[in-house]
Amino acid sequence: MTQDNHDAMPCRLKGRIALITGGSRGQGAAHARRLAQEGAHVLAVDILDDEGTALARTLQAENLDVTYRHLDVTRKDEWTALHDHLADIHGKLDILVNNAGIVHISTIEDETPETWQHILNVNLSGAFLGLQSMIPLLRKSGHASVINTSSIFGPSGAPGYSAYATSKAGLLGFSRTAALELAADGIRVNALVPGGVSTPLNAAEKEGGVIPETPLRRRATPQELSAAVAFLASDDASFMTGAELVVDGGFSAR
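Predicted structure:
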């Protein structure tokens, strides 16, 4: 991005504290860049420490306020430690992006209980543990926004993606319930529902993936998803909670 384009970026998130899981690469890395460009202090967390550290250094070199910290989203003790870290440094949290997720392709017949549970632990329970741990800090924000990354395979299903689709469908129900429970605290909770996105996570997908079923005939770039995340995180979405923002190139309109 040129300096002129950087200066033209809206500054809707100035001074806000943002936490992004799965922040080392792909969508998470793009979200970290975009939220920081809009003025947020961003903490990216992941288990991919080398990539996360490199990302933070790259973005810091661009004068963006991004730091990295190790976090396994399936570990309650690590979430508790992260809560204490943020409480000591900032005393609040304004934006939580539950982006961490993994994909495994298998038929239901061939799926193992261990892999099934692992997918749900990362994709669904990770978001639950994250929100549960951060509620006290989000309450102190005054304009808190939680964004849970689902998928078009949540509402639609997809052969070979039983565990993944189940986890993403679960995130939709979790987001609606959290929105209802936390509205009185001024905490908005919405779900981002992407279609196909070009990231390292889907590099092993068969040729074409969802592209033939997508009217725009391509996958999204991570940056296109990040624009939606920045919107949901900002006061421009101040009357949105319990919603599903679908960014799928027309997939669900078929």
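Summary: The mean pLDDT is 93.
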